[in-house]
Amino acid sequence: MPLPLADWLVRIQQQHPQAIAMGLERVRAVAGAMRLAPKPAPVVVTVGGTNGKGSTVAFLEAIARAAGLRVGTYTSPHLWRFNERIRIDGVDAADDAIVGAFERIDAARGDTPITYFEYATLAAFDLFERAGLDFAILEVGLGGRLDATNLVDADVAVITTVDLDHMDYLGPDRESIGAEKAGILRAGKIAVFGEKDPPSSVLRRAYALGTIAIRGHSDYLVDRFDDHWMWREPGFQLDLPYPALAAPVQVDNAAAAVAALRASPLAMPDEAFAHGVAEARVPGRLQVIGESPEVVADVAHNPQGARQLAAWLAANPKPTVAVFSALGDKDIEGVVAALLPHIVAWHLGPITDAGSRGLPVETLEARVRAGGATTVHAHGALDHALSAARDAAGEGGRVLVFGSFHTVAVLANAPT
Length: 416
What we know:
Elements (H helix, E strand, L loop, with lengths): L4 H9 L11 H10 L8 E6 L4 H14 L4 E4 L11 E3 L2 E2 L2 H15 L6 H16 L3 E5 L16 E4 L7 H4 L3 H8 L8 E4 L6 H10 L2 E4 L5 E4 L4 E5 L2 E5 L9 H14 L6 H10 L7 E4 L3 E5 L4 H13 L4 E5 L7 H8 L5 E4 L12 H10 L5 E3 L3 H12 L4 E5 L2 H7 L5
Parallel strand pairs: 1-5, 1-6, 2-5, 6-7, 7-8, 13-17, 14-15, 14-17, 15-16
Antiparallel strand pairs: 2-3, 3-4, 9-10, 10-11, 12-13
Helix pairs in contact: 2-4, 3-9, 3-10, 4-5, 7-8, 11-12
């Protein structure tokens, strides 16, 4: 009898001694043993960057599906169920399909240890190849150059933003981090940069390879109006609705998705862009999960994400109480500092499902106070923090749940 998916997920966490082990040698060897095709679909877009990857993937998927294409998306991490990571035509992969892929991976890998993320990536490639896709979208897990998704030579690479995160793995500054993210670029292929001024390391890599670079707010422009926005490049423009995804930065993410699809070999009718931008959804991005008080969940977990969250709070003022927890390797002090003007009180709880990356709540409290917060309450569990924050906010206030995918996953209600 096949091992259930829940048991497989426990098993694959134990196959490699490290939770994160960057490098392509192991995963390339297993992909070769599985005889996977070089690309999981005729057209592939890979999306990297510090923030905005998941939202950009959602826009790409929604637009392409509106155009009638058969689309596969691979994202990480998941919020509620592993199955969310692998979608075909907007539907999460079924347990038995994932188990079948894991069985094929295990049969091929021999004694080669691979990580949880590498299992997931190979499973996505396997299922996509079997599905007969028109288009595959791959979200980079960490960095780019040594990420398992980088086995595939994408037709278009998107780098949304570059900022400080995962510095233990990617380097101490934007230039170092940018060099790692630029590893997804390919000679003679297309790259879309969501920022007008990405790090020099990214541009140098593009120029050295002969990558065709398309820069946001330079090679394509975004004009905002009261009731719509316009995406335009020389000789072409699109009038588009504002995204349902709430943060102001989502227009930039949508614009990068439009640029990637415009530059790809895919044929897209104009109406597909408008429909996809309006319909794209992704959980945990300023997601309203309760009322009276309003409860909003967001996975922002680094200073850049916190600044984007602060911009939304400034545009939507309301007394806001935070429910916050973060992993120990994050710039907690920088996150707190970015949000200080918008948060009246902080309620903290520990993350208990992240192994050594989690923090005791006492350590978390000390780091939140080091970021400048003064009204701070530590709780023994995140659900206790949420209950206290609801009481503190009152019916007319707001509770903001953020700091980690783990935090949102614990506190947000899974969709029905």
